[in-house]
């Protein structure tokens, strides 16, 4: 037993909105980074030294808890992930909370930079550059190569390049993912993470029951459960008098030509460490670079739980570079990645589906 084995299955912490969430007025990049680095699972400043990594479980029981009586934890967590923009959720005991889905991840830190001309606003505009904190995870309990996984990235973009920026800022949020039903992507290099993924729920086997629970909850709360719009990035740093112009689709994929990390049954967290740290190094010297591509030309075919999204006319507009990685208790239990709320018109904030923690539009 390690110090992290105390509670690998049971839920803990507040899943719902709390006073801590409502008091949020922004965060300093340096403070969030410090929290992530505070308690790595393994040796080394970033937990980069070889050794076991914990496996926290996403369970059908936790997903369906409260269906007939008691607190509906999944619904509480889903609403809070939309309504709360808090970057750190410590909770009353400082232990944070247990994620119901995507419980195992690794945080990555770096920079977002847009280098190509395009018609979009905010941090999609050419010349935009900011610091990023992300968390790469697999959506269920499958973390190893050879398993059917859905690799995802939740990310914050801070409108600054100064890691010691003195005042709190409210970052823009991005959520991108492979097919929600899972893919057999052996290398992180080959993962195509999009904000509007396809959904082939049957691939999850018995854990389809978690998706069966999640889909209706997200639809009831926020209308669309399988896509996340990009308006927060398009409004980050944008003058108030300029009309928002956000792309409909975004793709993040590692730039071709980067090293592929070998290893049978390799955990994706270990794979990312090996991209960033050379064996035996105490400091990170590697880079994971992703192309940022956008498009307004996509189409979804199928029905809920069985749908395919096809996108054409991708335009590469910039680079996302990660130069740090850390797997830690706080990365899994304290840092939060907010889900941008749905708008009927992604460029019009008056068409938000939710306001003041309630659904206000149908």
Describe the secondary structure blueprint for this structure:
Layout: H1 19-22, H2 29-37, H3 60-64, H4 73-83, E1 105-114, E2 129-138, E3 151-158, E4 172-177, E5 193-194, E6 199-200, H5 208-222, H6 231-235, E7 249-254, H7 268-276, E8 288-295, E9 297-303, E10 306-312, E11 315-326, H8 329-333, E12 354-355, E13 358-359
Antiparallel strand pairs: 1-2, 1-11, 2-3, 3-4, 5-7, 6-10, 7-8, 8-11, 9-10, 12-13
How does this model look, in words?
The protein is an alpha+beta fold. It has one domain (5-344). The chain contains eight helices and 13 strands. The protein has helices at 19-22, 29-37, 60-64, 73-83, 208-222, 231-235, 268-276, 329-333; strands spanning 105-114, 129-138, 151-158, 172-177, 193-194, 199-200, 249-254, 288-295, 297-303, 306-312, 315-326, 354-355, 358-359. The strands form three sheets. Strands 4-3-2-1-11-8-7-5 form an eight-stranded antiparallel β-sheet. The chain is globular and about 55 Å long. The N and C termini lie far apart (49 Å). 45% of the residues are buried.
Biggest sheet strand order reads 4-3-2-1-11-8-7-5
E-strand count? 13
Main beta sheet strand tally, sense and closure: 8 strands, antiparallel
So what's the overall shape?
Answer: globular
The Rg value, from CA coordinates, equals 19 Å
Counting DSSP H or I runs of 4 or more residues, the number of helices is: 8
| Domain module count | 1
Give the helix proportion (percent range).
Answer: 10-25%
* Secondary-structure element string: HHHHEEEEEEHHEHEEEEHEE
Distance between the termini: 49 Å
């Amino acid at each position: 037993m390690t110090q992290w084995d105390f509670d690998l299955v049971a839920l803990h912490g507040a899943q719902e909105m709390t006073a801590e969430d409502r008091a949020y007025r922004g965060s300093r990049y340096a403070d969030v980074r410090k929290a992530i680095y505070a308690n790595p699972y393994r040796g080394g400043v970033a937990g980069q030294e070889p050794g076991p990594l914990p496996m926290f479980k996403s369970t059908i029981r936790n997903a369906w808890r409260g269906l007939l009586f008691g607190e509906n934890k999944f619904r509480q967590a889903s609403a809070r992930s939309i309504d709360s923009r808090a970057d750190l959720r410590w909770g009353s005991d400082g232990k944070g909370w247990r994620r119901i889905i995507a419980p195992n991840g690794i945080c990555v830190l770096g920079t977002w930079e847009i280098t190509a001309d395009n018609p979009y606003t905010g941090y999609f505009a050419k010349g935009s550059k900011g610091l990023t904190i992300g968390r790469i995870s697999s959506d269920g309990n499958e973390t190893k190569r050879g398993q059917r996984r859905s690799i995802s990235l939740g990310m914050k973009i801070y409108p600054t390049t100064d890691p010691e920026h003195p005042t709190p800022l409210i970052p823009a949020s991005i959520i991108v993912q492979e097919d929600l039903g899972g893919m057999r992507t052996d290398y992180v290099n080959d993962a195509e993470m999009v904000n509007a993924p396809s959904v082939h729920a049957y691939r999850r086997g018995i854990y389809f029951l978690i998706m069966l629970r999640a889909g209706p909850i997200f639809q009831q709360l926020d209308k669309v459960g399988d896509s996340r719009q990009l308006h927060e990035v398009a409004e980050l740093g944008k003058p108030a008098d300029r009309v928002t112009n956000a792309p409909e689709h975004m793709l993040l994929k590692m730039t071709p030509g980067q090293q592929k990390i070998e290893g049978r049954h390799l955990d994706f967290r270990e794979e990312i460490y090996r991209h960033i740290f050379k064996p035996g190094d105490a400091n990170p010297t590697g880079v994971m670079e992703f192309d940022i591509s956008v498009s307004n030309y996509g189409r979804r075919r199928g029905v809920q739980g069985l749908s395919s999204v096809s996108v054409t006319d991708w335009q590469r507009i910039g680079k996302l570079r990660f130069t740090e990685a850390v797997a830690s208790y706080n990365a899994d239990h304290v840092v939060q990645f907010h889900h941008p709320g749905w708008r009927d018109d992604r460029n019009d904030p008056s068409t938000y589906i939710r306001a003041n923690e309630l659904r206000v539009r149908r």
